[in-house]
Write a structure and sequence with these properties.
Layout (H helix, E strand, L loop, with lengths): L2 H21 L7 H27 L4 H10 L4 E11 L1 E2 L2 E6 L6 E2 L2 E3 L7 H6 L3 E2 L4 E2 L2 E2 L5 E5 L3 H10 L8 H9 L13 E9 L3 E2 L5 E12 L2 H13 L5 E4 L1 H5 L3 E2 L4 E2 L5 H8 L6
Parallel strand pairs: 1-12
Antiparallel strand pairs: 1-5, 1-9, 2-3, 3-4, 3-13, 6-9, 7-8, 10-12, 11-12, 14-15
Helix pairs in contact: 1-2
Length: 282
């Protein structure tokens, strides 16, 4: 029995008793009935107060709260949670070619879970998205998952707690820039980065027909003098089939060059989210 269902059951039982005793008051000397009446008021009032506090706590997320807790509470929702790097030098941003799609995007990827996450996954009936493939096969441990709408809020709370999951964006930086030799390993073996914002989409309808939610943590790389020099050297190499450098206008137009009226490159929509630190439909 869920906590919500338990609370509702208690409210109905004690609330019913309060209503009964309000309509049919006990005798003044009926100490037991009077005690139960007062106790019922305190218990029911406490649960209602707790519900009000939960509502106020989620008031900023009211649309998502209504959609997941009421409208789509029994429907499976796909949640994808990732981190993205904004790597900027001289007004241009470094984007890399996706290994799965024919577009360029910021360095980054889905957060990974730790083995200890099994407990929360079982509690919230979380299912991994087994359709995502990488060069190494089916992606394992990625925070690309399905869960029923009623569990979405609790899942996001778990993610925000930082328990049982990857918390550093270093892994994808290493895999996508150092292991691929786009950047030299030695100067970038240690990096500084700054958290900028978390961009969350509303609940949207995916191409598959499923309902989906995207969450991206955005980080800015803070290069030291040597690292900045290496990045400038990479700009001089210009673009390749592995990476491009794109300015603000090209990113906001998703690769469309306003001057030539043509697409120079295909740029993923979430690149625009990362750049502007906010979600947009297109």
């Amino acid at each position: 029995m869920s906590t919500r269902f338990s609370n509702l059951t208690v409210v109905l039982i004690f609330g019913g008793f309060i209503l009964y005793r309000t309509i049919f008051p006990p005798e003044p000397d009926d100490a037991i009935s009077n005690t139960l009446f007062n106790l019922s008021i305190e218990i029911t009032g406490g649960i209602i107060l707790f519900g009000i506090l939960q509502f106020l706590k989620n008031i900023k997320n009211l649309p998502l709260y209504f959609q997941t807790q009421v409208l789509h509470r029994k429907k499976k929702i796909r949640i994808s949670i990732a981190y993205l790097f904004r790597i900027k030098v001289d007004g241009k941003y470094l984007l890399i070619k996706s290994s799965r799609r024919n577009y360029f995007q910021p360095v980054g990827g889905a957060f990974k879970t730790l083995p200890s996450s099994k407990r929360i996954f079982e509690k919230l009936n979380i299912e991994s998205d087994k359709l995502i493939e990488t060069e190494k096969g089916i992606a394992k441990g990625d925070l690309r998952v399905f869960t029923k709408g009623v569990n979405v809020i609790d899942f996001i709370k778990w993610f925000n707690s930082k328990k049982d999951r990857e918390t550093s964006p270093w892994r994808e930086f290493c895999e996508e820039l150092l292991s691929t030799k786009i950047l030299p390993k030695k100067p970038f073996r240690y990096i500084d980065y700054e958290y900028k914002n978390t961009v969350r989409s509303p609940l949207i309808t995916l191409d598959s027909g499923d309902k989906g939610l995207f969450i991206h943590e955005i980080y800015d790389l803070i290069p030291n003098i040597e690292q900045e020099q290496k990045l400038r050297e990479l700009i001089e190499v210009k673009n390749s089939d592995k990476f491009i450098w794109a300015d603000e206008n090209l990113i906001n137009r998703l690769g469309h060059n306003a001057g030539t009226k043509e697409y120079e490159h295909e740029i993923a929509l979430h690149t625009k989210w990362a750049h502007n630190l906010k979600w947009s439909k297109e």
